[in-house]
């Protein structure tokens, strides 16, 4: 048996229950993992509240790190005791679970379990956003919303290391100062400043070639208006609510714009892509170019409080849950 955070209906943080669940032995191609740290991500909230549908009852969470505790038939790439992490398979908020061996990445010695759980989902996301959805070049000036969040602080540092100039946005002056300490050149407090006006000022009226927008409903329109002609809006989240249906003619009016709505699952679907993206992430972290800020830790049983804090915009950087 393993203790887990499970929900039987969609709703607020109160639907999360700390329950004992059966784990069982790994089947062919699977391993069992004794989890040491679990990443908390905004997608966990969308799944809990039903914005993204999952089969019920569900164990919450999409990312964790730990040790292999049993190996199923046919698994040759891993052995008991190996240090591993994963993203993208719901059911992570628990002490022990089964996982397909081909979805795991092995952790370098220099990466701790809590660090891995704090960065794998967020860091792989930053990798595809800034190296694949739009390949950022030295000197590019980019707009990155929610720059003091988990994804945001990794993005600020990684973009700076590429020689890009980052305009961040965040919901308080303290969060803006944090984004600037992590490499943003400017940060707009979007509770008090007008995003489009500030971006136009900062770019001499030109606009930016790419906007990374995970806030969704509240920023989508402003994001389009910050782009230069042929610019790309990468809409990758809905922290303020889903983006309403888009009238395509707005893209013509604002200068032959592009919009993409990517997801990490597409970019990591092939094992070779998962491995190469993880290798690049581990390299920027172990070299010290990107530091992982674990600013909030909770015991696994307090996952509901972690959700309350993330939803209420009380967190910065990454949050992890620790099984006891
Ligand atoms: P964050 O730590 O960035 O937390 C979300 C932040 O969004 C908040 O701290 C807050 O920062 C900002 N925000 C703005 N408006 C609201 C609102 N109304 N309610 C709550 N928060 C708001 O979370 P993560 O790092 O886990 O994820 C960042 C975003 O990236 C999420 O939207 C997530 O869904 C998305 N994502 C998408 C992926 C993909 O592949 N498509 C993969 C990974 C993440 P502030 O107070 O500064 O505004």
From TrEMBL:
InterPro entries documented for this protein: ADH-like_C (IPR013149), ADH-like_N (IPR013154), ER (IPR020843), GroES-like_sf (IPR011032), NAD(P)-bd_dom_sf (IPR036291), QOR-like (IPR047618), Quin_OxRdtase/zeta-crystal_CS (IPR002364)
Stated name of the protein: Quinone oxidoreductase
Source taxon at top rank: Bacteria
Keyword NADP: yes
SMART domains attached to this UniProt entry: PKS_ER
An example Gene Ontology molecular-function term: NADPH binding
SUPFAM superfamilies in UniProt: GroES-like, NAD(P)-binding Rossmann-fold domains
UniProt keyword annotations, A-Z: NADP, Oxidoreductase
GO terms under cellular component: cytosol
Classification via CDD domains: QOR2
PANTHER family according to UniProt: QUINONE OXIDOREDUCTASE PIG3-RELATED, QUINONE OXIDOREDUCTASE-RELATED
Annotated Pfam families: ADH_N, ADH_zinc_N
Key word Isomerase present: no
Sequence ranges assigned to domain Enoyl reductase (ER) in this UniProt record: 11-321
